[in-house]
Amino acid sequence: MVFRNSFQQQQESKDPAVTGPISPYYLDQASFLEIPSDHSPESPSTCFERIEDLTATGCTKVNQQPVIPSEVYHDLEPCEAPDSTISRQRTGPNTRSHLTYSYYPFLTLDMSGLEPDDAHYLESRNCLSVPTPDALDDFIREYFLHVHPGLPLLDEAQFWAVYSGDKEPCGEPTISLFLFQAMLFASCSFVPFSTLKGLGFTSRRNAREKYYRRAKLLLDICSGRDLVSNAQGALLLTYYATTRDRARTNSILLATAIQLAQGAGADQYHKRPDQGSVDTSRLKRLWWCCIVRDRILPLGVRRQLHIASINPALDHLTEQDFAKEIEESQVYSPQTKRSLVQLFISLCELAIPFTSVIQTVYGMGQSAADAISPIIKNQKQIEESIRFCETSLNAWLDKATIQFPIPAGIISTEKSLVLYTNLIYIYYYSARVALYQYEAFVISLTSPGACMDDKLQQTRLQLEDATLGITDNLKELVQLKVARFLPVSIIAYAALPLVLHILDVKLARLPSQTARKQGRLNIYMETMKGLQNLYDGVDDVWTFIRGAIDSATSGILDSFSPKTDASPSSALCSKPFASLQAADDWGNFLLQKPILYFRLSRTIDLSLAVGCYAEDSSLSLLLASAEFPSPGLYFIGADVPAEAEISGSDNGPMDENGIPELDDICAEKRSDIFDEIRDFGGFELDVDSLHTPEFLDMFELDLEDE
């Protein structure tokens, strides 16, 4: 099977009669002729630019030599609600579009010991069903284009051999149904929407939810004895992100995956006598993927590690561990695949300094009150830990920038490489943001008077630089229209910078300042708009942001009595009101009103950590002893403009009949976060241009549709 041929050949020929070979698993082709081709200009195919729907005919082996041009990505197509002619699909997935797993000889499910009622329940919940071959090819292609580069759990070459039927159906290896359903969940955000609609789903978010539930039920009820496959599948399910259950499910699944991997001996792969064997290589990949996921997730959602340390005896992943799939990838050229492998190896190296950053910043609990006493008592050790983290991060950066210079687009025209290069630097700069914000909090608690001013000023500069680094990386992705292919974790990483840029726009005094700061804010808004149709997490994080800003600027002090002997509060007390009038950006806001800044930022951190909106009452206690005017945003020198008369719904996209287009049938119930951002505390934030950014031309961003 060769997906790669579509990268160039379909660009050269747009004749609809030109089709590829028939899938070896194709069933009842006539019944699917009504499903439209989905490789429109808005489709999420990996090739970042337009290709035709070659995969509608399936994927199979061909005898020609693949031609591999530059890989470029599609844009995602609009997610529209099914119209009345297909309203029957709203009741659930179309059963005609799914087959029982046993239709595919490469899928296996261990049902030994399963009660009949459990088997019937799994069947009733569609856990034993997978998409038909034409749709399935889309899922698998998108998995290896968009999920696998960031978490290469599987040997891609071996997978294609099994999937295409090169391996004997009755022999090993096969693919666990649970792992396969987890792959469908992880990839469905990038699958063309017409494919999902043909399967009976109303939106990408709806598809994610359904496939997650199917995989999760298989894990809970019928996961089988294959610990490695179970660990791999559980690790993929950590990409599930919603606060509806408020159970921090992704962290629980991460712990489950790590325990399963340990049960399989993955953490001891370096002690196995058969070094270099397929089994050892599989365990080695799995354990490093566990380590990476146990750094990316906790850093984003401000939680503690499950793998507290990385054994220095572990052999690092090398290109040799990926040699076969570099040459036999069906979606990337060998050159691009090799670079993507090198990026993941660099991410594994970044996981080492991330360990000390997360333990330093989030190792003392989630409450500021819990952290204050240890911070004051162990100030010197904490300062040394911060410097060690700083040195480790800088050492990684020095090496990484030689191999992967930035801006990435200057070196490579491969948009997939630009995407993952910028992503790894977003992770790096996010670690710096966490580190320097923690340092600012420590300084505010332990350094009184002029000493605090000098230290806080230096930390403020580092914090601003790290935040700007995230913005610049996102800018390049928005510029190339690939930001929407970022993983769900980016939503948590962007939360605090988004808040700070909102604050920056409001604090701007001069039109030139407003334009520049608005342009930076628009980059985040464009990113979030691209991700909102894919992930529930955007709406959840917006709830945190809205609540945090409303709380920090409510003008209502908590009803705690000030404690005259509360020494930490003295350092955190805000400066006189007059000095705040000079604040024209969030950095000065940190210097002049640290207590308000930390109330705002800690609310975001705590909400992400606990999985629902939460405030730190210990900061409210400190706030009660600070003397300052009503802390609404208006008191920092901004005018109160008239209330906006135009609602966001008037600016949304319309269909040919003038009816607003909806991504899914629940879209009307979701508040438009890009309209809400205009108004905090009853007055205009003057960001009407967020739906159609007008300042991005300052950054030479071309956001016009291609």
From TrEMBL:
Residues 1-11 have a biased composition (Polar residues). This is Xylanolytic transcriptional activator regulatory domain-containing protein. GO terms for molecular function: DNA binding; zinc ion binding. CDD domains: fungal_TF_MHR (cd12148). Keywords: Nucleus. Coiled coil: none annotated. It comes from the Eukaryota. Residues 141-396 form the Xylanolytic transcriptional activator regulatory domain. The keyword Nucleus applies. Residues 1-20 are annotated as: Disordered. InterPro entries: Fungal_Detox/Toxin_TFs, XnlR_reg_dom. GO terms for biological process: DNA-templated transcription.
